[in-house]
Design brief:
The complex is a heterodimer of chains A (501) and B (96).
Chain A: H1 10-18, H2 24-42, E1 45-47, H3 50-69, E2 82-86, H4 113-120, E3 124-129, H5 163-171, E4 176-181, H6 187-193, E5 196-199, E6 219-224, H7 227-237, H8 255-265, E7 270-274, H9 284-299, E8 303-307, H10 315-330, H11 351-360, H12 363-376, H13 382-402, E9 408-412, H14 428-433, H15 439-444, E10 448-455, E11 466-472, H16 478-491
Parallel strand pairs in A: 2-3, 2-4, 7-8, 7-9
Antiparallel strand pairs in A: 1-3, 4-6, 5-6, 5-10, 9-11, 10-11
Chain B: H1 9-15, H2 22-39, H3 74-78, E1 84-85, E2 88-89
Classes of the chains: A alpha/beta (501), B mainly alpha (96).
Chain lengths: 501, 96
């Protein structure tokens, strides 16, 4: 049972902190001790600043004591809770590497808006979590500083790109974490590590201070141990931000209150099962676990309907045109001039670009910049980029059409459980196809969540590995999405199983 | 849609301002040709009369009041510069 402090949920710990059973410093110390004990095997963090985290914990304990003294017991939503942050989201005064040699020595001069909001909610910003370089990948193997291990089998990948964020929650190295999701980078690692991972609707969370990969697809979102915790963190980081013109002016609901109200009302959800997500390439045991979860929803009284998303097979192709095009443009800023790596051999003002970028970027980042430059180049723009944008319209229409009939769509998060390190390293295409179920959600701007839904059976070559259930919601209906996820979670006990470390 | 063979790696790497080693050129050519061959299936889709989507939700101009606010200090702004002098970033000589 998850009874040790470092394995508990935000809601449990908030109660214990409010009741004075523990202090934030004690909690932080427990998380630090756990991190030191498992980190040599997991390597979820690029860096962490113990002294800074303990100072934040002390400040939280002082705030709490002051509030108590003045008779105020309504504490902030994340008061004293250690939250890990993917090393692509700025925290002032802390390193910001994007797991790239390009930014190996970069220190953030300011906070991302998501960071500002975590701090304002009383959270302790804890550590810099590993990822695939510039969030490009599905395994964290593209990190310039080393691969994170899956806590359920250290020989396997945790998924990616937010692999460090998923592994840290799974291994007890943080209570919750932030990641970013451009094509599945929150949901896929959440599935592979048996934690909850939520990608909000595009525009729900400000991207200010997030290192840009593909600006029309990127969203920041939480990893947590329970749906309730994910809802708590989402409530903190959501909302309009004048510093991100794509963040929407929409009221942020009290997600947990909404979930509770929907549970009380006994609403029977209509859930769509897209046949295109259950075909070739789906691991039979992953399929079986997802099918069992769908049966659980049926027992809950939900109406299960088959739906069709006919353009699903084109999502990966459209994505790798649109995302690489945007990345080639966004990463043009890394020129070796104002910040980041500068080649020691640069002879003149043009040479500095060619050499600094050759030395600073890893293979996958170079491949994507080149592909993106190609699809945008003169003579090819219409054939690739414009066509992909039109296909994006059709993919989005498929979802909106399905939502005329159903409240949400239920699918596997990933076609396979965690794969072995190195297994897909030689073939970028094989790696890309691992995101086949998550990519459409980003293209359509929808909210999506992955929740634990079981394990594969142990075989002579494979230990039991986690399986994730993806639920895809309607635009800006995160409350409904979370309520549907919570209904399943309440009837199952996957959370009680922890990796043996 | 162009054929995968149309990818002229030297030309594109030059546009992207990235020096590639000969080993990288060989490996990337093969890998990117795989990806381009896969992407070719987008040709099957009938996109006639379909509007392109650049953002999932319409993006409109957002106007802000022109009010000066404190920004980064010079020290913070130059903190990560590879080389600096007298509050300026130093670069290799541009003109002889």
């Amino acid at each position: 049972m998850p009874d040790q402090l470092f394995n508990r949920s935000i809601s449990d710990l908030s109660r214990m902190l409010a009741e004075g059973k523990i202090s934030s410093v004690e909690l932080m110390q427990a998380v630090i001790a756990r991190t030191k004990s498992v980190e040599p095997r997991i390597r979820a963090f690029n860096s962490y600043d113990e002294a800074d985290a303990l100072a934040q914990a002390r400040a939280s304990d002082e705030r709490r004591a002051e509030a108590r003294a003045s008779g105020n017991t309504a504490f902030r939503p994340l008061e004293g809770i250690p939250i890990g942050i993917k090393d692509v989201i700025s925290v002032a005064g802390q390193p910001l590497t994007a797991s790239s040699q390009m930014l190996a020595n970069f220190v953030s001069p300011y906070d991302a808006t998501a960071t500002v909001r975590l701090k304002a909610a009383g959270a302790i910003c804890w550590g810099r979590l590993n990822l695939d370089e510039f969030a490009m990948g599905s395994s964290t193997e593209n990190s310039a500083f080393g691969t994170t291990s899956n806590p359920w089998d250290l020989e396997r990948v945790p998924g990616g790109s937010s692999g460090g964020s998923a592994a840290a929650v799974s291994a007890g190295e943080a209570i919750a974490t932030l990641g970013s999701d451009t094509g599945g980078s929150i949901r896929q690692p959440a599935a592979l590590c048996s934690v909850v991972g939520l990608k909000p609707s595009y525009g729900r969370v400000s991207r200010y201070g997030l290192i840009a990969f593909a600006s029309s697809l990127d969203q920041i979102g939480p990893f947590a141990r329970t749906v309730e915790d994910a809802a708590t963190v989402l409530g903190v980081i959501s909302g309009h931000d004048p510093k991100d013109s794509t963040s929407l002016r929409l009221e942020v609901p009290d997600y947990n209150r909404g979930i509770a109200e929907m549970a009380r009302s006994g609403r029977k959800w209509k859930l769509g099962i897209p046949k295109e997500y259950f075909g070739e390439g789906l691991d039979p045991e992953v399929g079986a676990a997802v099918q069992a979860a769908i049966d659980e929803y049926r027992r809950l009284g939900c109406e299960i309907r088959e739906v069709s998303l006919p353009h699903t097979k084109y999502a990966v192709g459209a994505y790798y045109i649109i995302a690489t095009a945007e990345c080639s443009s966004n990463l043009a800023r890394f020129d070796g001039v104002r910040y980041g790596h500068r080649s020691a051999d640069a002879r003149d003002a043009v040479d500095i670009y060619f050499k600094s970028r050759a030395e600073g970027f890893g293979a996958e980042v170079k491949r994507r910049i080149i592909l993106g430059t190609y699809v945008l180049s003169s003579g090819y723009y219409d054939a690739f980029y414009l066509r992909a944008q039109k296909v994006r319209t059709l993919i989005r229409r498929d979802f909106l059409e399905a939502y005329k009939e159903v409240d949400a769509i239920v699918t596997p998060t990933s076609p396979t459980p965690a794969f072995r390190k190195g297994e897909k390293a030689a073939s970028p295409l094989a790696m890309y196809l691992n995101d086949i179920y998550t990519i459409g959600v980003n293209l359509a701007g929808l909210p999506g969540i992955s929740i634990p839904c079981g394990f594969t059976k142990a075989t002579p070559t494979r230990v039991e590995l986690p399986v994730g259930l993806q639920i895809i919601g309607q635009p800006f209906k995160e409350t409904e999405l979370l309520a549907i996820a919570s209904a399943y979670e309440q009837r199952t006990h996957w959370r009680e199983r922890l990796p043996k470390l | 849609m162009p054929k995968p063979d149309d990818l002229k790696l030297d030309h594109v790497a030059n546009l992207a301002r990235i020096n590639l080693t000969s080993e990288e050129k060989e490996r990337f050519s093969a890998q990117l040709n795989d990806v381009l061959a896969y992407i070719e299936q987008l040709n099957e889709v009938n996109v006639e009369g379909v509007e392109p989507t650049a953002h999932a939700f319409p993006v409109v101009n957002v106007w802000a009041e022109d009010i000066p606010e404190p920004g980064l200090s010079v020290e913070d702004a130059l903190r990560n510069a590879p080389e600096k002098r007298d509050n300026m970033v130093v670069v290799p000589k541009v003109v002889e």
